[in-house]
Amino acid sequence: MKAIKPINRSNTSAKLGALPQPLPVRRALVEFGHDLALARRRRRYSQVSMAERVGISVATLRRLEKGDGTVAWGTVVRAMQVMGELTRITTLLDTGEDELGLALMDQQLPQRIRSKKTGPESGGL
Q1: What is the pLDDT of residues 77-98, one digit of tens each?
Q2: How far apart are CA 26 and CA 19, in angstroms?
Q3: What is the pTM (predicted TM-score) of this model?
Q4: Is residue 29 within 8 Å of residue 16, measured between CB atoms?
Q5: Using CA atoms, how far apart are residues 108 and 100, in angstroms rounded to an integer?
Q6: Among candidate residues 84, 81, 88, 85, the one with its CA nearest the CA of residue 54
Q7: What's the alpha-carbon Rg for the chain, to the nearest Å?
C-alpha cells in the first residue's frame, strides 16, 4: 500500500479544515482512490475518457484517485456507476444486514407483552 501523505490544507474546505481526518479514514480514502485507478486501468479507460464519462475534469479525477476527501460524494457515486459497480454503493448500509443496529433494536424490545383484559367495563365482548 502507498504511504499516506499529510493533508494539504490549501485543498480542503474551511469546514473540513477545522476537523482533521482520522488516520483510518485517510487510509480508506487512499485505498479507494488506488482501487479506483486500478479498476479504471483494467477497463482500459484513460484518465481523460474516465473524466468525461463521470462528467468531471481530469484534475478532479486525479484528486479522487489520490484519495482526496474533499471530492464530492456525488462524484464518487457517478464514478462507481461508470465502473458498473453502483449496486455496491446502494447496499453499503443495507438495514437488513446492519448487525449492530439490529442488536440495538433487539435490546429495546419489551421483555414480555401483556394483553389487555377485556370485560364489560372496557367495552370488550
Answers
A1: 999 999 999 999 988 888 888 8
A2: 13
A3: 0.68
A4: no
A5: 13
A6: 81
A7: 24
